[in-house]
Backbone:
């Protein structure tokens, strides 16, 4: 479907407002501290024009969360579906995430800051997106033969460990310059190793398993022997 010139201009203005907000946040401002007048001035539009696109600044923040997370979720889903082996799923998912964060630094400066920031609506939206990633991954994990008999809450716990480990790596990516080799090298390699630990532990997991006492013979706890 071809957009009209008016619709194209509307989309460009909306994108300019969102980018202007992200640029201000990248300079160290919190979303809560953003001024509508500053954002519109940086976007090159009038404050009146802002209200043709968003009801208020909170709605702008929600649009930023939705845009970034929905695109990423689609890419990660494709990466998982395009591969079969567990090892390939890990490497493809990590490569997709690392590349996406590196290519969308402004958005992830916003997401990492506002995940614990002052705007409640935005913070809750980010949490909902993370919970969505976790639920989707838990559903995928339930299809693996060695995990399908685990209780739903255990699958959710495993998925949460994986998703939170991946999300936390975004800060390390953002601390380095975009072209730094460690972004696709050391950071990605470390993340893959961390996920291997979680997945291998999940494959050996039994509900009710416990860590053995120091004097307890190996194998009694239900954990695998080394």
Residues:
């Amino acid at each position: 479907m071809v957009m009209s010139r008016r619709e194209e201009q509307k989309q460009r203005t909306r994108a300019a407002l969102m980018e202007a907000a992200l640029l201000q946040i990248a300079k160290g401002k919190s979303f809560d501290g953003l001024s509508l007048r500053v954002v519109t001035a940086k976007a090159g539009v009038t404050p009146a024009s802002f209200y043709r696109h968003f009801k208020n600044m909170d709605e702008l923040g929600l649009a930023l969360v939705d845009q970034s997370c929905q695109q990423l979720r689609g890419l990660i889903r494709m990466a998982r579906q395009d591969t079969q082996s567990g090892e390939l799923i890990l490497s493809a998912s990590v490569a997709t995430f690392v590349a996406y964060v590196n290519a969308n630094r402004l958005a992830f400066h916003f997401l990492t800051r506002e995940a614990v920031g002052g705007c409640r609506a935005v913070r809750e939206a980010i949490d909902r997106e993370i919970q969505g990633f976790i639920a989707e991954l838990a559903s995928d994990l339930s299809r693996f033969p060695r995990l399908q008999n685990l209780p739903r809450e255990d699958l959710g716990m495993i998925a949460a460990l994986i998703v939170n480990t991946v999300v936390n790596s975004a800060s390390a990516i953002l601390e380095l310059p975009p072209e730094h080799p460690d972004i696709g090298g050391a950071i990605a390699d470390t993340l893959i190793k961390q996920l291997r630990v979680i997945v291998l532990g999940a494959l050996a997991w039994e509900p009710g398993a416990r860590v053995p006492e120091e004097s307890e013979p190996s194998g009694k706890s239900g954990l695998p022997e080394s």
